[in-house]
Design brief:
Elements lengths: L5 E2 L8 H14 L7 H14 L3 E5 L2 H11 L5 E4 L5 H9 L3 E4 L22 E5 L10 H10 L3 E5 L7 E2 L2 E2 L6 E5 L12 E5 L2 H11 L21 H11 L2 H19 L5 E3 L11 E5 L2 H13 L2 E2 L21 H9 E4 L7 H15 L1
Parallel strand pairs: 1-13, 3-4, 3-5, 5-6, 6-9
Antiparallel strand pairs: 2-10, 7-8, 9-10, 11-12, 12-14
Helix pairs in contact: 1-7, 2-7, 3-4, 3-6, 8-11, 9-11
The structure holds pyridoxal-5'-phosphate.
């Protein structure tokens, strides 16, 4: 029998008939978008699932980050991490701000708070750290620094659906936390994103920015906004998938732990240090050398298994868009980290097959 390729991830999808049930109501009402009933339900139910305060659903996580910068009226330098997806940096640049990198902690892979103060200048207006692979940043340390220097904090929480920090949703921290409901994320609406805040005025402003800058009663334009609304079709997919979120989270944790136990027999690998709660949405393996990584990747590819080099290369090396500033930890880790396939429909046999092939190279 022909072997099917295994990719790094696959979306967690509700049964099609459950999506169709929701879509039927869209067809009946004729409301496709414009803050429709399903967007409002998705916004409310995801917020309540997390125990978060305020939630503005938008078209994707990148736009959520851009809207957060816009809503906080930031102009100047924003301290961020070089160990992330390009969207973290590009959102800052699209809003006319300048990304300034601070290196990461080699164990947690999140921004190293001990290095933040040295990067603060008279132009610094905010800090935008990333909860990498669902592992929360040292939020207490970051918020203390932000308060001391009067800086705003926007968390890139695009990997953090389902994550708690100190007993409550990680989305309740920072001025605004932004997440992604992209197909590859723990909860997906195909494309989608959300801005979370505990500040009602900021939430109302985000909702105005999402809808062209209209006032709440839609009679006048009260600020400069755009069109960042999620459609009812996407909200249907998100709502249907929300029912299966807890299952997906439980499944990831079981598979992550199994992967970790099996890989731990090799002295050539180590794992991300989890500081509090985690959703185990990725299984990143940190190799001793890039050479070991490439050998394992090649052996897996030969069996049609495609892990991904998240995040590679380190963002500070994209010199077509940012000036190069050395970030030794991020540059080093980026070359040695590989995320193994991990998703709900991946069988335990396939998890073991991935371990067998990798360990065959490593041991
Ligand atoms: C850390 C991080 N930030 C931002 C984004 C952007 O999210 P989206 O793809 O929903 O625009 C991603 C996306 O994959 C991400 O991994």
């Amino acid at each position: 029998m022909e072997k099917k390729p295994i990719y790094v991830t696959m979306p967690t999808l509700a049964p099609l008939k459950e999506v169709n049930e929701l879509l039927k109501s869209v067809w009946q009402s004729g409301i496709m978008t414009h803050n429709g009933p399903l967007l409002q339900r998705f916004e409310k139910e995801v917020k309540e699932w997390h125990g978060a305060k305020y939630h503005t659903v938008v078209v994707n996580g990148t736009i959520a980050l851009q809207m957060a910068i816009k809503a906080l009226e930031l102009k100047g330098e924003i301290i961020t991490t070089p160990f992330s997806f390009i969207a973290t940096t590009s959102a800052i640049q699209y809003e006319g701000c300048i990304p300034v990198y601070v290196d990461i902690d080699p164990d947690t892979l999140t921004m190293d708070p001990a290095k933040i103060e040295a990067a603060i200048t008279s132009q610094t207006v905010a800090i935008m750290p990333v909860h990498v692979f669902g592992n929360s940043c040292d939020i207490e340390a970051i918020d203390t620094i932000a308060k001391k220097h009067n800086l705003k904090v926007i968390y890139d929480a695009c990997h953090s659906v389902g994550v708690q920090y100190k007993g409550q949703s990680v989305f309740n921290y920072g001025d605004i936390s932004c997440t992604s409901y992209h197909a590859t994320k723990m909860l997906n609406s195909g494309e989608g994103g959300g801005c979370y805040t505990t500040n009602p005025e900021l939430d109302a402003k985000l909702k105005r920015i999402r809808f062209f800058g209209f006032s709440e009663n839609k009679t006048s334009i009260v600020e400069s906004g755009s069109n960042y609304k999620m459609t009812e079709v996407h909200a249907s997919v998100g709502l249907a998938n929300l029912k299966y979120l807890q299952d997906a989270l439980d499944d990831r944790e079981v598979k992550y732990m199994h992967f970790k136990e099996r890989f731990a027999v090799s002295t050539k690998v180590r794992f991300q240090k989890i500081i509090d709660d985690c959703n185990y949405s990725y299984f990143p393996v940190i190799f001793d050398t890039e050479e070991s990584l490439l050998k394992v990747e090649k052996a897996l590819n030969a069996e049609l298994i495609y892990p991904r080099r998240y995040f590679y290369p380190s963002l500070n090396t994209f010199t077509d868009i940012v000036p190069y500033v050395e970030m030794p930890v991020s540059e080093d880790i980026s070359k040695r980290i590989l995320c193994m396939p991990l998703y709900k429909s991946l069988s335990m046999q396939d998890v073991d097959r991935i371990c067998d092939i990798s360990l065959n190279v490593l041991l």
